[in-house]
Each structure stands twice: as C-alpha cells, then as structure tokens.
C-alpha cells in the first residue's frame, strides 16, 4: 500500500490520473500508443479499398477515365481546402490544450468542427447530384436512363467511389462527434498542460482523416 502511494507521489491530487498509472506522462504515453495502434488498423482498412480502386483501374482504365469526368472537381477541391484548413485548426487545438488555454481550445475546436460540417454539406450536395443522375453503385446504376452514357462497367467505378468516400465521410462524422465531447470536457476545465492526451489523440485521428482525403481526391477526381 505504501509503495502505491509513493509511486504516485505529488500527482495523487490529479483527478485525471487513473489508478493503474504512476504518472500523467505514463498515462499519456499509453493512450498515444493505443491511438497509433488504432490508426494502423484504420490504414489497413482503407488500404483494402485503395487496392480495389487500383484493380478496377487496371482492368477498366478507359471506363475509369470516362466515369471520373462525372465527378465534381469543384466540390472535391473545396473539400480539400476545407480539410487542409481543419488540419491547421486542429493543430492549434492541441497547442491550446498544451498551454492550458481553455478558451483558445474551444475556439479552435469550433473552427475545426465548422470545417468538418462544411465538408459534409458539400459531400451531401455532391451525393445528391449522383443520386439524381442515377450514378449509383452496382445494380442501382441507372445513369443511362438519364442520358449519361458511359462505356464499359461504370457501376463498378461508382461502387468503389461510394465505398471510399462514404467510409471517409463516416470517419468525418465520428471525428465531429468526438470533438463535441472534447468541447464539453474543455468547458468543465478538464484539459491543461498536464492533461491534454485526449485532445492530442483526437488530433491524430483527425489528421489521418485529412491524410486519407489527400489521397482520395487526386485518385478519384484528378485521375489521368
């Protein structure tokens, strides 16, 4: 019992230190390791979809080139700028938490969430156009009935498109939900220079979301 008290030392007063860790630094290191392992599994998941894309492009290069012309480069470009901006605002969130700047943390969080919200609105507009034109995956594809003739098997391309961008969009929504949680906790004063691991890990997750889009945009929208 005495050993346990000694191990925690003067950090006993920190309400955010879990009982099975000796110091806040040890706790933060364990949390970051767990997040990196989680991100590794996320990369593996997206890698399977990227593989599906490259196989589709290898077998049907002309079809992919023709089908991608029906994607909105404007919408994709706007979303790219929005997510790049959100990477900066998220980095400032982490910096604010590290310097115990709660107001700054909340302000940068709101800006990051606004960027994520804009991304989803633009994605909704883009998806709406695809639905209206019948450019849907698999057996739901009916673009030819709307006057859009694409040679080959375009339903395969749009299946890959919706899987890749849809899964990415789902990750954006998860990120937004977690940021709301961080915002609420920041309002309670949970984060400071000695306890910012949760903010940092959310930042790592969001940067992965941004990174995945950086690959999706040129492969789907700018393919040549």
Description:
Helix content is 75%, strand content 0%. The longest helix has 36 residues, at 24-59. The protein has 7 helices and no strands. It has a single domain (27-221), classed as Four Helix Bundle (Hemerythrin (Met), subunit A) (Up-down Bundle). Mean pLDDT is 87; it is low at 1-11. The chain has helices spanning 2-8, 24-59, 61-68, 73-98, 102-132, 154-187, 197-221.
Features:
single chain; Four Helix Bundle (Hemerythrin (Met), subunit A); 0% strand; disordered N terminus
How do you describe this structure in short?
This protein has 224 residues and is mainly α. It is 75% helix and 0% strand.
Question: How are the elements arranged and paired?
Answer:
Layout: H1 2-8, H2 24-59, H3 61-68, H4 73-98, H5 102-132, H6 154-187, H7 197-221
Order of helices and strands: HHHHHHH
Instruction: Tell me the number of structural domains.
Output: 1
| Major sheet | none
Cα separation of the termini: 67 Å
Kindly state the percentage of residues in helix.
over 70%
Residue runs with pLDDT of under 50 for 5 or more positions: 1-11
The structure class reads mainly alpha
| Global outline | elongated
Number of distinct beta strands: 0
Radius of gyration based on Cα positions: 22 Å
